[in-house]
Amino acid sequence: MAELERRLSRIEDERAIERMIASYGPLVDAGVAEATGDLWAVDGSYDVEGWPMRSRADVVAMVGSDPHQGLITRGCCHFLGPSVVTVTVDGDSAVAVCESILVRNRDDGFTVARAGANHFRFQRIDGRWQIVARTTRALNGQVEARDLLAAGIRGVAR
Amino acid sequence: MAELERRLSRIEDERAIERMIASYGPLVDAGVAEATGDLWAVDGSYDVEGWPMRSRADVVAMVGSDPHQGLITRGCCHFLGPSVVTVTVDGDSAVAVCESILVRNRDDGFTVARAGANHFRFQRIDGRWQIVARTTRALNGQVEARDLLAAGIRGVAR
Amino acid sequence: MAELERRLSRIEDERAIERMIASYGPLVDAGVAEATGDLWAVDGSYDVEGWPMRSRADVVAMVGSDPHQGLITRGCCHFLGPSVVTVTVDGDSAVAVCESILVRNRDDGFTVARAGANHFRFQRIDGRWQIVARTTRALNGQVEARDLLAAGIRGVAR
What's the rounded Cα separation, in Å, for the pair B1 and B41? Predict the structure, then answer.
């Protein structure tokens, strides 16, 4: 019974994190700033090329910013793929990785503006999972993007 | 024991819905009309810009239609991302949201023809989940698409 | 109790397979050859247009090959969508299907180089799931790609 509960809890934890990552695109493309920020810990970070954010408030500000509002009023889709989540043995922290593309609506139609590697660190804080660090790098050949994927996925196979 | 069963059933319900949404693209791109229609309730609706469908039979007809058959014989991919599913407290209805892109094969290669916001309402009817309403809008900057995402994702964070 | 365990095990099996498929893109885009190969059985196959692989070693060699290394040092994203997994009644084999796009970084930016249909057969070997056969075909209108999707998804609806 305790064993079944442990296995069930692990699935619930992984699914909660998968769900948060799956909700990022819809939230940020809807422009819902507060709910997007709530995915992050109060002092969580989001490091995306050219735009370092160091707190939940910074993420909220990003969603409300002119550059982001310009993106969504023109049309965009932050399209994140299925994530691979690994919860640590103690059960209160996790790493996740996924790939993503950013599709933008431009004068000549929709185009892929970027393909990206995403690495997340989560902590369970006050009873719910929160992003403590997210790093995103363009898959433009740079070694750093490939290292992010490798670091996030380590130990999955086997 | 009853508590474990309740938690397990919830995961099974959410997974059943996630699976149905994940099967839409493969089914519709394979052109399997009846099985695509079976995702919908007999009187379920699918409202996609310029093409309102008001029943399972309408969905079956769409898959078999000249425009859709033209798409798939030329080459296309209805690519839906991971969905975020919220089952209601009573356990017999659910809302889901995901983003999607439509990739088409054209003379000059594959292109993104559209990015979309998708909102689903499901009901458990005759013991299985069925789509009672799906709404899809292009993420071309229109407020309606962003509202669909916001409505579907509400209450996810926190 | 035995019934709960059976239902839980089924979810764990399906999730293990979903996770392996979700890890393929990050692994192959990171260029981690051995870990990519470990997704396959020793004598597993990967049949992708113009490049038949007949063993785990062949998959490892593909990742390390000049063509693949050229792709990733230039920038690419093997973006696989959510998979639909069906475990057989005996519990030791499974079929999965998903769609995918390959995004490449080129001189004029990122483009969709291919949309694909993916069909996987898994076996539980030595206590872990392994790919025994993967077939990928471009969704360029060919009947074979549509048949792959239909074969993998059969029996999902209803």
Answer: 33
Would you state the structure tokens that stand for residue A109, as one six-digit string?
């139609």
Q: Using CA atoms, how far apart are residues C94 and C107, in angstroms rounded to an integer? A: 41
Q: b/e map of A3-19 (b: 16 or more CB within 10 Å)?
A: eeeeebeebebbbebbb
| Axis-axis angle for helices A66-74, A2-30 (nearest 10) | 90
Paired strand residues for B78: B102
Torsions phi, psi of B53, nearest 5?
-115, 140
Helix C2-30, helix A2-30: angle, nearest 10:
50
Query: Stretch C44-55: mean pLDDT, rounded?
Result: 94
Q: What ipTM was assigned to the predicted interfaces of this complex?
A: 0.95
Which residue carries 């080459």 as its tokens? B75
**Rounded average pLDDT over C53-58:** 98
Contact across the interface for C110 and A101, Cβ inside 8 Å = yes
Per CB distance under 8 Å, which residues of A are interface residues toward B?
1, 4-5, 8, 11-12, 15, 18-23, 25-27, 29-32, 35-36, 38-39, 72-83, 103, 105, 109-112, 128
Q: What is the Cβ-side half-sphere exposure of residue A38, based on CA atoms within 13 angstroms?
A: 15
Residues in chain A: 158
pLDDT, one tens digit per residue, over C137-156 is 999 999 999 999 999 887 54
Residue A72 and residue A89: Cα distance in Å, rounded? 40
**Probe site for chain B from C95, C156, C158 (most B CB atoms < 10 A):** C156
Beta bridge partners of C45: C133
Q: Are C157 and B35 in contact (CB under 8 A)?
A: yes
In Å, what is the CA distance from B54 to each residue of B17, B57, B139, C97? Answer: 20, 8, 23, 29
Q: Which of A110, A102, A104 is nearest to A137 (CA)?
A: A102
Q: Are B118 and B100 in contact (CB under 8 A)?
A: yes
Are B153 and B97 in contact, with CB atoms under 8 Å apart? yes
